[in-house]
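Long-time lurker. I teach an intro course on protein structure, and each term I like to show students one example going from raw sequence to a predicted 3D structure in token notation. This year I'd like something fresh instead of my usual example. Would anyone be willing to generate the tokens for the chain below so I can use it in lecture? Attribution to the forum is fine with me.
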Amino acid sequence: MPLKALSPVLAGLLLAGCAGMSSPPPHESAPPPPRVENQADCGAERVQDRVGREYSESLEASIREESGAAAVRVIRPGEAVTLDHRPDRLNVRLDDDDIISEIDCG
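-- Reply from a regular --
Happy to contribute to a lecture. Here you go:
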């Protein structure tokens, strides 16, 4: 059998063999972590009235006591922080003037 006649036969066999192959299942990403409703684990909702006030250690102590958080982390602009999420930890974020800009769990 000449080579020219053999080429279409080989191509057909290769295509037929590939037709039976199935593609891998689509990649499924992990489900998102559960959302903490109302941030109840760290008590952030109880101390939102402190946002906009100037930070001091005595204010931190009252925030810690009233929130009931297991830990309080004060975060200043440009400061490196760990990325681990702890729902029982209260984050107090400050601006450049040491004014509390945000209070949340994490």
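Some talking points for your students: The beta strands are 71-75, 89-94, 100-105. The chain has a mean pLDDT of 82.
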